Amino acid sequence: MIKSLASFVKLVNKNNVFLEQVRYASQALPQLSSEKYNIHRKDFGRIESSDVDYFRSVLGQDRVLTEESDVLPYNVDWIKNCRGQSKAVLKPKSTEEVSTILKYCNERKLAVCPQGGNTGLVGGSVPVFDEIVISFSLMNKIIDLDDLSGALVCEAGCVLENLDNYVRERGLIMPLDLGAKGTCHIGGNASTNAGGLRLLRYGNLHGSILGVEAVKADGTVIDCLRSLKKDNTGYHLKHLFIGSEGTLGLVTKVAIHCPVLPKSVNLGFFGVKNFENVLKLYKSAKSKLGEILSAFEMADFDSINFTAKNLKLPNPISDYPFYVLVETHGSEETHDGEKLTRFLTNEMESGLILDGTVTSEPAKMQTIWNLRESIAAAGLVGGYVFKYDVSIPLKNYYDLVPILKKRLGDKATKVFGYGHVGDGNIHINVTVPQYTKEVSSMLEPFIFEEVSKLNGSISAEHGIGFRKPKYIHYSKDQSALGLMKDLKQLMDPNGILNPYKVLPDHI
Length: 507
Ligand SMILES: Cc1cc2nc3c(=O)[nH]c(=O)nc-3n(C[C@H](O)[C@H](O)[C@H](O)COP(=O)(O)OP(=O)(O)OC[C@H]3O[C@@H](n4cnc5c(N)ncnc54)[C@H](O)[C@@H]3O)c2cc1C
Description:
This protein is an alpha+beta fold.
């Protein structure tokens, strides 16, 4: 019986400097998800030695993991909240292999859990019971790059950072960027419709993904892998697979549009008095920086202070109630730098910015992005963190942080908020010494009810996964849920694809 697990994940910051961080806050394993959340196993087949023999005949000995210690990392999620009980991990290398495996699993009614980089934050990437993990880590080939149109075609298991490095050498960038880019896969990004730091400028993946190849539960390969910008030939089926978290099909290849690598990148980091001024600053940035604005992020004092302390990272300016990070992507260094510096000077005069720094030096930009991108991991150090990822109309964007502070009192070590203001998306983290049902029940469904009252979304970018199906109705109407159920029935009648995720049991 394995009692502990030490595993490390390499996270990469925006400027390609690796941050090796402890993946799990302590050595203890999380409780089994099925027990923690009182879930009952559905009526799926159970994997037998004859099944393992079959998988080995398709994939070979090495690409079928069954040793408990080999399988364990695939059973535990990044945040160390969920733990499944899978007995087998399969590592296909081609679409044909994925198709063969799924056809077999469907006939045997064996449930599967697709897994990319396992950086998902809602428990969708790990099994709940004994679902077979299908890992995409060996499907990592770049197939084609058209550097004129910017269309990149690659396999689902390509790590986002590797793709970014590859296209950068050819004068392009990936249209998305996130703190987990050193580990997450493009197939995982597509399946979660990941947002991240560049969404304000380059839009979401429903726009930049040009085509998808996916495998249905019965093994049928759906080829929507076009790399055209315009293709109005019937239903836009690729969208079914973008953001459906592995419940409608397994994404095997992606075609994605890569924008041109900006010739000039500038970054400003500002101290701000209150949240009202953060919003005023956002309005001003949109109007004064216009076409070059690529990110507008905010973090409150506790987010930055907690991260700087826990991960021993430098904060380039002193302490302020709120921090704002403004990035520009443009084509003319002098013009862009002057524009951002003028913005800083003007807004210091207006009082919206109390202090700040503007830089285009890669090392300095890297220090600032490091601090921002590490907030997600900082909460894991020395305790447990309840994470919420919600969209809220901007005027109420920060309301929930003081509400939760009041509600939880000294039951929480910290409650802090940070996120993508430009997208109306705030991440709320509640840190506690350890997970308790008491704090959990003070937070849920309360937080989702509040989000719903504010006309927000209970999941802005992380998805529904395992953690939120029973709360999905706070953001999705019954008619929409009914259609989701019909689609699931059509695409996966035996329900073998990522069960217990996304769809609530009773619709
Ligand atoms: C430090 C940190 C920062 C993050 N920042 C952001 C952020 O800014 N924005 C954001 O949106 N997310 C963010 N995330 C969450 C996470 O990184 C994203 O959801 C990411 O897209 C997940 O990719 P992955 O390859 O790790 O997928 P996994 O975690 O392995 O899987 C995620 C979901 O997709 C399914 N899946 C994976 N691969 C496939 C496939 N090929 N076919 C079908 N289904 C599949 C899984 O079953 C699961 O339901 C962050 C996470 C961390 C740890």
